[in-house]
Amino acid sequence: MKKILMIATGGTIASKEGDSGLAPAISGEELADSVPGIRDICQLTVLQLMNIDSTNMRPRQWLQIRDAIMEQYDSYDGFVILHGTDTMAYTAAALSYLIQNSCKPIVLTGSQKPMGNPYTDAKINIYQSILYAVDDASCNVNIVFNGKAVAGTRGRKQRTRSFDAFESMNFPMMAVLHDDRIIRHYMEIPPAPEDLKTYDQLNDRVFVLKLTPEAKSDIFDLLKGHYDAIILETFGIGGIPDSFEKAIFSWVDSGKTLAVTTQVPEEGCDLEVYKVGKKYSEHPRILQAGDMTTESIVAKLMWVLGQTDQSEKIKELFYTVINHDRI
Ligand code: ASP
Asked: Within this chain, do residues 90 and 60 fall inside the same structural domain, yes or no?
């Protein structure tokens, strides 16, 4: 039987209703004991790493999860992380960059309703995550939620209330799960064990700026002392108001990085299409995020800038496809 390490971090799945609202209160062991059948399909060990609302999950905690996996990597066949849904897409993306080419599956799951709720989705999500983690064809980092498996760099929390919280953005789902069956939509060749690459450095000085009509470009000056990279969520396929031109070139010419994406949820960004974008497309410190999710761009830039501050190397790492993060 395969050995699975379940790492509990909190989230709604572990929450109970208190006077001040829902907050994590149930342990990982209790969660595992609430799901019938999981100890029949794997040899399960539970590690309680933290018990927090994922609202409070930050890069420091991503590294803690990464360390917990790597410290036990050789002892287990797969890893299931119980995590709040609100920032799960960021953590899944961060783990995709911190642990690359993993032949052992790393699965994130959680629930929209707490385990104690009579209509909870927690049991099926934990069960199917373990099912996915013990399957021989699974590898790398994925979110498994509501019967879908989504590449760790392509997940987005798209709904706040329904069980169907996550979508795979601009990329097919890896698989759907029907009860005990995994139906693969995307067949991956599992990496060889020696291809594993791990990293433990992140630069968290990355900020997301969403353009709005009448946004003031001097925000770039205000951000200079605090951040090394800005992710600019432009209009449409890559529209940037003319009033931003000076501020943007001054930002990148001072040695800082800008990644350009779109605030439109689907189909990505291309600066080449319109005059209002094209003038930015050739600059070496302006990166085009294409069809990546904003969550993945945040995690990727933190990982890239944790490795280097050289613009050629930043570019090379940013444009390298990792765990299906861009086409
Ligand atoms: N606020 C919760 C969290 O992200 C929401 C959830 O888990 O569904 O931890």
From this structure: yes
Question: What tokens does 297 get?
Answer: 């761009």
Residue 325 lies in a domain: no
CB 51 within 8 A of CB 27: yes
Catalytic, 160? Answer: no
Return the closest-CA partner of residue 238 out of 167, 205, 170, 287.
287
Q: What is the position in ligand 1's atom list of the atom closest to the CA of 11?
A: 9
| pTM of the entire predicted model | 0.98
Question: 310 and 267: one domain?
Answer: yes
DSSP string, 45-100: EEEEEEEE-GGG--HHHHHHHHHHHHHTGGG-SEEEEE--STTHHHHHHHHHHHEE
Give the Å distance between the CA of 120 and the centre of ligand 1: 14
Which residue in the list 9, 12, 257, 293 is annotated as catalytic? 12
Task: Look at residue 299 in the predicted model and tell me its pLDDT.
Answer: 99
Place 172 in a pLDDT band, splitting at 50, 70 and 90. very high
pLDDT digit string (tens) for 231-254? Answer: 999 999 999 999 999 999 999 999
Residues 125, 12 within the same domain: yes
The domain boundary residue, chosen from 152, 169, 198: 198
Give the model's confidence band at 167: pLDDT under 50 very low, under 70 low, under 90 confident, else very high.
very high
Specify the number of domains making up the chain.
Answer: 2
- 25: domain range? 3-198
Same domain, yes or no, for 222 and 94?
A: no
Residues enclosing ligand 1, CB less than 6 A? 11-12, 53-55, 84-86, 110, 112
